[in-house]
Amino acid sequence: MNLPELDSRAKWTVHVVDAATGEELLSHGADVVCETASIGKVFLLIEVARRLESGELSADARVEIPEEHRVADSGLLYLMGSQDLPVRDAALLVGAVSDNLATNALISLCGLESVRAVAGELGYENTELHDYIRDGRGPGLPWTPSFGTARELSDFMRRLGDRELVSEAVSDRVLDWLAAGADTSMLADAFSLDPLAHLEPEYQDILLRHKTGSTSVTRADIGIVSGPAGSVAYAVAANWKGRTEDLRVPVIDAMRAIGEQIRARVTGRERDDWSLS
Known about the structure:
Keywords: Carboxypeptidase, Hydrolase, Protease. One of its GO terms (molecular function) is beta-lactamase activity. It comes from Agrococcus casei LMG 22410. This is Muramoyltetrapeptide carboxypeptidase. By secondary structure, the chain is of the alpha+beta class. It has one domain (about 10-275): Beta-lactamase (3-Layer(aba) Sandwich), CATH 3.40.710.10. Helices cover about 30% and strands about 20% of the residues. It has helices spanning about 40-55, 85-95, 100-110, 110-120, 150-160, 170-180, 250-265, and strands spanning about 10-20, 25-30, 35, 130, 145-150, 205-215, 220-225, 230-240. The protein has a five-stranded antiparallel sheet.
């Protein structure tokens, strides 16, 4: 794989590996710590799944939304007339639409410190879900909801795909929640999947499990993608905090270029094969 042109005005972390062998396929700033927006929610999902498997939580238990952590934007729950959800459905909303309100309810249920500790317990030193989702981040508040490096996040997705995180049952729960992920606007756009229906292998027999994160100064996409010719685990994040320009267009263009190379590798098809079934 070849690194596409990356806009130098952004801070990048990129790491792509063969999911079966761990072979490094592409790397740039793999150990650079970036803000990762909603990416850290995967660690919350690990903790929720672990508690469901251990019996500490019931899948049918209703989640409570603390008034001090009510937020809008990403997700659907804040728009719903009924916000009385069981744990399993709140986790599904996080996996499917990165729901901020469901995220905060589940963090409150599990405890922020417990959720913060998950990444470290999995062996990661520079990656974490760091805080609740907040409408604003003033003085005295944690600097970001989540942060990480592409090397650690691609490793997370590779291990998740191998069902090695905590247990096979925990990994399976998280993979099921991520399977409904509807945001294919970044790197995964190159796979040409139906954004709302790709639970099973879809276009060119591609199977995707991934998580994205977006803010006004961040784009991030991590995942594991499989096809007839192989499997790849990837993580790409870019930040442009402090810039006067909005760099989302050149950033997403580069992410899609990486995604196209991943698509070709896992399907064994080049661009001129796209029209083949």
